Amino acid sequence: MTSHHTDLSKASSAGNKPAELVDPQQLREIQEGYLDRQRPIVIIGPMAAGKSYVGTHLARFYGYEFIDSDYLIVERYGPVTDIFEVHGEEYFRKLEAEVISEVLNSPHHRNTVLSLGGGAPMTAEVAEMLKNETVVYIKVDVDTVKPRIVGNSKRPLLQPNPIEKWSQIFESRRERYEQLAKYTLDARGHRNITEMTSQIQQFVVDSRKAN
Ligand SMILES: Nc1ncnc2c1ncn2[C@@H]1O[C@H](COP(=O)(O)OP(=O)(O)OP(=O)(O)O)[C@@H](O)[C@H]1O
Ligand SMILES: O=C(O)C1=C[C@@H](O)[C@@H](O)[C@H](O)C1
Ligand SMILES: [Mg+2]
C-alpha cells in the first residue's frame, strides 16, 4: 500500500513544486487588485449626524476596522476643544488633514471604516483626497440633531447657540457633502442602526463588485 508520505516524496524527487501552481507575478497582481478594491469606507456629514455612531456599528457588524479622525487627533494631541482654544481652527484642520491622509495612504488600513469630523471635507486638500474614495454621506436635518447638540459643549463651533449655528454651518457645507457622496444615507429621525448599516453594506458590496 502506498502512503501519502511516499507520494509526496515521489513528487518532490520528480521535481514538482506545488508552490508554483500559480505564477508568483500573477499572484502578486491578483493580491494587489484585491487590496485596491478594499479602499476605506469614508463617512462624512454634519456635526452630530451619527458618523461615529454609524461607523462604529458598521465596522462591528461587518468586520471592518474602525477609525475616527477626531479620535485619532484626541489620542495624539488631546481634546478637540483644547486644540481649538489654544491653537485655533486652522491648526486643527492641518492636524485633521494629516491624520486623514495617513489613513487613506496606509496599506494597513484596507478594510476600514473611516468616520470624519464634520468639517473635514471643507479643507480643499481633504476634498481632493476623497474624490475617488467610497464616500458615504449621512444626511440629517436640524430636528434630528436637536436633542444631540443642545446642552453639549464638546463641539466648539456650535457655541453659544447650537441649533442656530448647526443650521448655518450645515447650509455652508451641504453642497460639498453632496458633491463628494457616492452614497447618501437618509438618517433623519433617529433611524434604526441595523437597518442603516445594512443599507451601507449593500452599497459597499455592490460597488466593490462593480469595480
Ligand atoms: N440614528 C440614531 N439613533 C439614535 N441616536 C443616534 C443616532 N445617530 C446618532 N445618535 C447619537 O447622537 C450622538 C451624536 O452622534 P455621533 O457622535 O456619532 O455624531 P458625529 O456625526 O460623529 O458628530 P461629530 O461631527 O461631532 O463627530 C451620539 O450620542 C449618538 O449615539
Ligand atoms: O464640524 C466641525 O467643524 C467639527 C466637527 C467635529 O467632529 C470636530 O472635528 C470638531 O469639533 C469640528
Ligand atoms: Mg464623530
Automatic annotation (TrEMBL):
Substrate binds at D70, R93, G118, R173. Mg(2+) binds at S52. It catalyses: shikimate + ATP = 3-phosphoshikimate + ADP + H(+). Belongs to the shikimate kinase family. The lineage of its organism: Bacteria, Bacillati, Actinomycetota, Actinomycetes, Micrococcales. GO terms for cellular component: cytosol. Monomer. CDD domains: SK. This is Shikimate kinase. It is found in: Cytoplasm.
